[in-house]
Every structure is written in structure tokens, then in C-alpha cells.
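In full, the data.
>
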Amino acid sequence: MDEKLSLTELQQVIKDSLYMALPDFYWVTAEISEIKENYAGHCYLELIEKQPDEKNVKSRVRAVIWSNRYRFLSSFFKDATGESLREGMKILVRIKVEYHELYGLSLVISDIDPSYSIGEMALKRQMIIRRLGEEGVISMNRELGFPLLPQRIAVISSENAAGYSDFLSHLKGNSYQYIFYTALFETVMQGTETEQSVISALDRIADHPGLFDVVAIIRGGGSQSDLSWFDNYNIAFHITQFPIPVITGIGHEKDLSVTDLVASQALKTPTAVADFLIERTANTEARLNEMILEINEITRSAIEENRSLIESLRIKMISAAGAIASVKKLMVDRHRGDLIKSTMNLLEKLKTRMSVLGNTLGILDPENVLRRGYSITTYKGRLIKSVSEVCVDDVIDTRFNDGMINSKVISKKKV
């Protein structure tokens, strides 16, 4: 063909050919790889389709939603899905193919089907959960067991997040005056950098596992789209392999992310995480106090039994000595020196044993226990071991080292 065409004429031929071959509107599925809105309100996207390996790109094209249509579609999509259009999201859109002499091929989007995106997000989430289950790792972090005194906490969060400041304020202002030690690992908590940022923070903490009792992943409240960044296989897998328990407070009341599902403990908000840590410590203290009282009673009983044994041995020794004196008087006279020595040795041993038991009794004496900062609470002279042993309006007595107070039970709560 010898006919010569200018570039513009060739572009026109391409344009006319496309419009003739593709005159209609088409529904197309694709993934958003880039999205941005310009000053005029137009939304420009790059749409891709990936290979089955979900890594390599199979095809790529530019698309646009003009401002007058974008205002409606973006609002409609967010109302239906709870999410905004974003990178990495799979969508079903109604398009018309256009060709421009300067900008080339593009797709003009006129409609979007939110139900497709909802299904894709739910499917992706279920596939991640199924994969973790098939690998047998989904419950590994929970199986570590949670520490009784979680005081050294590695925090994965953004320093500027309201949830982080609420967490610190709630944790350090606890009414028990417990002391907690926190170390912040600054992390991006939403957007495309979330995965790499959270994994990097986990790796840094894992380099020093002996420094921390637990890891807390926290952020403030947000939209459903904010939660979706934590429906991530790589983040979840890192948590399942983590050497210390992970607790989450990502800030959603309705749904659990995949990250929540694999964590040792999943709480709704950052302040709920703080409450959990405080309550865990308070429960441990209460159990220790109860054990101290039980040990005190067991020890006191053992001392009383040994006192009776010592008295019995003393009486038997006196009786035996009298019998020996009356029955074997000649033998005693002949071996008086040996008998006196043996008797003195036996008495010295008994004296030493009585001294040890006396010291033990002194250490465990309630007065000494009170001097060490503990208190004893009784009701009508009876030691209180459980909240079920008192009723509202009962008057209880609490004894300290330097005195006693009377209290009236206003309310009670079993934990």
C-alpha cells in the first residue's frame, strides 16, 4: 500500500476502527493499581489484570470517571460497601472504549457494581483464613498462653493516632497504680504501606523477644476500608509465627479482621486492650494474695502440730529417763557420763529444732505479715476468701499494721 498518512490521519483511522468494532458499553472486571482525583474532580485510574500467580501483570489500561459522574459513583459505592475506591481493589465497571489523538486508548467508566467488590473482598478474606487453616498455623499464637503479669508491652501503632494516646492514658492512669513499660514501634496503619510496615515492626520486636511480655497492635476507629488492610495473609502469618503473644485493638465494633483472628487476644478498641492488661494484672494480684493467706493458715497449723510433737517427745523422754533410772540404776551409775552426754546432745538438737520452728512462726505471724504491707479482711471474725462470702450492706473489718478500719459493702462484682 503506497498511500501515505499523517500521524493525525492514522490516529483518526484507529479511532474510527475502534468505535466501529466496539460501539457499545461493556461490563469489565479489573483491579485498581492506581487511582487519583485531580483538582477538577475527575478520577483517573490505572486498571490491571494479573496472572494466576497474583504477582505478574497480564494487561493494563488507563480509565477515567468524569467529575459529574464520579461524585455520584464514589458516594454510591462507599454507601454500599463501606469502603472507598482504592488501590488493590477488584471492581466490575461499565465502560465505553475511547481513543484520543494525544492521550491514546482509555476507558470511560459510567457505572460500577458494588456487589462484585463486596464478594471479591469476602472471597479474598475467606481464602486467607482457609489457607492459614490448611497450613495448621491459625491458632499458634493463641497456643502460646498469655502471661500472668503483662507489664512490658511492645506497641505497634502510629504515634499520632488518637487510639495510641488513649491507650497510653488509660494504661498508665489505672486505679491500681500498676506500672507498665511500653515501647512504640512507629508503623503505618492504613494504606498500601501497611503490610510492609507492620511486618517490619514485628521483625524488629522479634529480634529482642526477651524484652517484652506481649505485643499490642492498636489504632483508632475508622471505616471498613481501614479494617481491610489487616485482612492480609502476610501480616497474619507473621503473627502466627511470633514468639510472644499478640493482642489487637484495631478499632472496629462489628467485624474481626484476619489479623484479629490469629492474635492471642482480640479486643475492639485500644482502651479495651489497656483494660484487659490492667484486669489481667489485678486478677493475678488477687490470686497471689489468696495464696498468701492459705499458706499462712497451713503454716500456722503445721507449727501447732510440731509443738504438740515436741511436747510429746519431751514427756516421753522424761518418762523414759525415769524408767531407766529405776530399772537400771547400777548401769546408769556406771555409764553416767555417757548418758549425760547423750542426753545433752539430744536436748541440743531439740533446742535447735524448736528455735528453727520458732523463727518460722515469727516470720509467718500475722503481725509480721501486716508489717510487710498486706492487710487481712474479716466479717464477724471470719477470714474473707471470696466475694461470695459477703453481701451488700455487710460491715467488714480490714486490719492493717497500724490499725483497723470498718467498711460497708456498697456493691460487689465477681471476676
